[in-house]
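Hello Y.,

Per our agreement to keep a running log of every chain we model this quarter, I'm adding this entry. I've kept the format consistent with earlier entries: sequence first, then predicted structure.
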Amino acid sequence: MSFQMTRAELMISIGDHLGLKRSGWDTTETARLEEIVKSGAQQFYWPPPLPKERVAHRWTFLQPLGSIRTRSGQGDYALPEDFGSLVQGRLYYSVDDNKWHPILDTSIGRILGLRQKNTADGAPRTAAVVPRASEGRQPQRWNLALAPTPDAAYTIGFQYQVTPETVDASHTYHLGGAIHSETLLASCLAVAERRYGDAAGEQEEYWLQRLAASVSHDRALAPAYLGYNGDSPGSPMGSGRVNSVTFAGVAYD
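Predicted structure for the entry above:
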C-alpha cells in the first residue's frame, strides 16, 4: 500500500472536515470538494514564502529535464505543453558527441536582430523563450526561438519549471510523491477552513507547519555543488575552457 494520497482519499478527508459523509455525495457536495482539492493543489504547487523568507520555494519535483531535436533550416520550436519557465535561464546543445555547449538566453528582439544580421545557418548559440498568442480558449503555450537557425540536427537540453495538471479525475495522483501527501491535505483543509469556516485558524497554522517540513525535505534533495560552469571560447557567453559545461548539475568536460 502506498502512503501517497489519491484524489479520492483527499476528498474523503476534506469531507470529514466539513461534516459530510464519506461517500455518496450529491452534486453540490462533490463540486465543493473538487473545488477545494483544485485550490489546495494550486496552493501547494505554488506556495507562499515561508515566514522570514522573501521568496517562495520552488519544488525540485516540478523541475524536470526537457529536450528538443532541431531540424536543419528551422529556427522556432514548440516547448513542452507543461512548460512554465526555464530554470536559471540555461540551455545547452549537443551534436551527438556527448558534449554539451552553452546557449545564451536572450530576448526575441535580439534573436530577430541576429537572424537579420547573419543569415547563415549554424550551431545554435542564442535562444529566446516566446509566449504564443492566445485568446484564452486553451492554456497558453511557449516557443523557443534559436539563432543562428540550426544547420543540422542538434539536441537542445534544458531544465524547466513545470506547470502541473491539477489533481482531478484524470490525474488522481499529485506530483511530489508520498512525502508531500500530508502537506497537500493540509493545504486543502486550510482552503476549506478559509472558505467555509469563520476565519483562518488551526488548519492554516498546520498548513504552514507542513509546508515548512516539506520545503526542508525538498531542499535536502538540491545538489550542494553544481560543478564548474565555464563557457567555450568564441561563444556569446564569454571565454573559458573548451567543452566544459554544467547541465542539470552534471559537469561535462
